[in-house]
Here is the input.
Amino acid sequence: MIKAPYSITLNSPHETAEFAARLGADAGPGDILLLEGSIGSGKTHFARSLIQSLMDMPEDVPSPTFTLVQAYDTQVGEIWHCDLYRLGTVDEIEELGLIDAFDHAICLVEWPDKLGPLKPKTALTLSFQTDPESMDTRHLTVSWCDPKWALRLENAA
Here is the structure.
């Protein structure tokens, strides 16, 4: 059984997309994935790949940097893709309706540090880091407290 923290090297954008799709295959309403990492580390690519893997007809999945939230209806339910980078206070998160979405949607949250005390304890945290030797390689460290994630990660690995 995989134990937290779990580390994986993704050697290309294609490998990142495949891992996202495999993890998404077991996703369902109430699942929260917190995507950490610097700008350009692969958070949006991962989220886009997971979302598109669950669509009946893949469509464009833009970054929610300026809209803050993009919602998608998929075969497994609603997905919320959130980018909290531009938010200033925790009150703004509540105004978005994100806390309610945690209960009924799959939520992919970029810049989760902005959640502060609202960060769900059941979430899966994926920390992306670029490789200084290779522009396409990402090092991913995954952590969790909820035991459901260990089996899902084992299925996705």
